[in-house]
Amino acid sequence: MSGHHHSSSHAVSAAGKHRSRLAITFALVAGFFAVELIAALRSGSLALLGDAGHMAADVTTLGAALLALHLAPLRDKRGRRTFGNYRVEVFASGLAVLIMLGVAIFITVEAIGRFGSAVEPASGIMLAVGILGLVINVVSMLLLRRGSSESLNVKGAYLEVLADALGSIGVIAAAVLVSVTGSPWWDTVIALGIAAFIAVRAVMLGLEVLRVLAECAPPGIEPAEIQVALEDIPGMLEVHDLHVWQLTSGMNVASAHIVTSAPDTMLAAQHLLRDDFGIAHVTLQTESANRRECDHTDW
């Protein structure tokens, strides 16, 4: 006998609750990217070009995030994807990682190439675009801040925008330093700093993506604590084969085999996992005390 429980008939991923904010952020970032790219090409600033490259990554990943939200709830007509398309959000976050690393490598290569020449960037254009970019990024961060703590996909977008905000600060600093000192090398040095920051953020997000794909227990949830809590339920004789993982951010899943002596024990276990551990989708299989069905499985 088995029991199944989820908190609602239509599961909604964490990122889905912030769809409108992602859409507004996408529009802001896409519009500014076009402005910054033109300004970077006209000014000759590597720092500005690097920030524009990261803005391109933002446009791509925010677009992918919105596409993922559209595809996630759609049902597979062939019935092969029994978990639906929710993992698309995780793949979109993985795409964000690859783009961020690509931008970081591009900026680094371009910066190294400039050590043999002195390109004088237009500091006035750099300063104006840097300030505008900082305003756009701060607004975008405010839009995404709440969702970043709930969704891996929104967190990926938030980190992209955060990196761009710091990139805009770097562009402003480079513009001021080039203007004050007259040395174009400040532009190159700050561009390298922007590349390093993007790379670090990409690695951090990449580790989170790998944890989800490896089906590790969700952050903040300890399987050992769940085991103890389930065993403390009145009428619970045994708990084994406990598995806890994330389908995507905000959608935690658990399964276990249990041996009980009371008819209400399964329902109590489902409520405990939902209310105390935030696990909305639970599958429990009951077994008799003298015979384990799982003994006949291969793993």
Explain what this protein looks like in three dimensions:
- By secondary structure, the chain is α+β, with helices and mostly antiparallel strands.
- It has eight helices and four strands.
- Strands 1-4-3-2 form a four-stranded mixed beta sheet, with helices on one face.
- Keywords: Ion transport, Membrane, Transmembrane, Transmembrane helix, Transport.
- Residues 218-288 form the Cation efflux protein cytoplasmic domain.
- The chain crosses the membrane at residues 21-41, 53-74, 86-109, 121-144, 156-178, 184-204.
In short:
The chain is of the alpha+beta class. The protein has helices spanning 19-43, 46-71, 88-114, 123-148, 152-181, 185-213, 223-231, 265-277, and strands at residues 2-5, 236-248, 251-260, 281-286.
- Number of folding domains? 2
User: What's the CATH C level of the largest domain?
Assistant: Mainly Alpha
CATH fold descriptor of the largest domain: Alpha-lytic protease prodomain-like
Number of strands: 4
GO molecular function, one term: zinc ion transmembrane transporter activity
Domain Cation efflux protein cytoplasmic: 218-288
Organism: Brooklawnia propionicigenes
Pfam families: Cation_efflux, ZT_dimer
What are the main properties of this structure?
4 strands, alpha+beta, 299 residues, 2 domains, single chain, elongated, Alpha-Beta Plaits, 8 helices, 4-stranded mixed β-sheet, Alpha-lytic protease prodomain-like
Strand-helix topology:
Blueprint lengths: L1 E4 L13 H25 L2 H26 L16 H27 L8 H26 L3 H30 L3 H29 L9 H9 L4 E13 L2 E10 L4 H13 L3 E6 L13
Parallel strand pairs: 3-4
Antiparallel strand pairs: 1-4, 2-3
Helix pairs in contact: 1-2, 1-4, 2-3, 2-5, 2-6, 3-5, 3-6, 4-5, 5-6
